[in-house]
Design brief:
This protein is mostly helical. The chain contains two helices and two strands; from the N terminus they run H-E-E-H.
């Protein structure tokens, strides 16, 4: 008889503990899930901003490189398997001017 009452006491204790813990767990999960998702969202937004800034920098670099190639202000040097590109910054300013200093 004693074991029966111990079993009933254990079952009732488990039911009471579950009745207390289930709302607490739901509150913790209910608060924790939005916080975790918010942190993930903020991290992804930060990564997107960094990627956008990197894309703008790459776009400006390629635009400047194309402009220098069109202005013929660059020189390719072949060293074995590698090419070095040298861009002459002074060449664009007087490229199409005629030298009149000796006239």
């Amino acid at each position: 008889m004693k074991k029966l009452f111990q079993f009933i006491g254990a079952v009732v204790t488990i039911i009471v503990v579950l009745l207390i813990l289930i709302p607490i767990l739901l509150v913790v999960i209910g608060v924790a899930v939005p916080v975790v998702l918010s942190i993930i969202g903020i991290a992804l937004l930060f990564a997107l901003i960094v990627a956008a800034i990197g894309g703008i920098i790459a776009m400006l670099t390629m635009w400047r490189f194309r402009r220098d190639i069109k202005n013929n202000d660059f020189d390719f040097e072949h060293h074995g398997k590698h090419y070095n590109v040298h861009i002459d910054k002074k060449g664009a300013s007087f490229k199409n001017r005629r030298d009149v200093t000796e006239e």
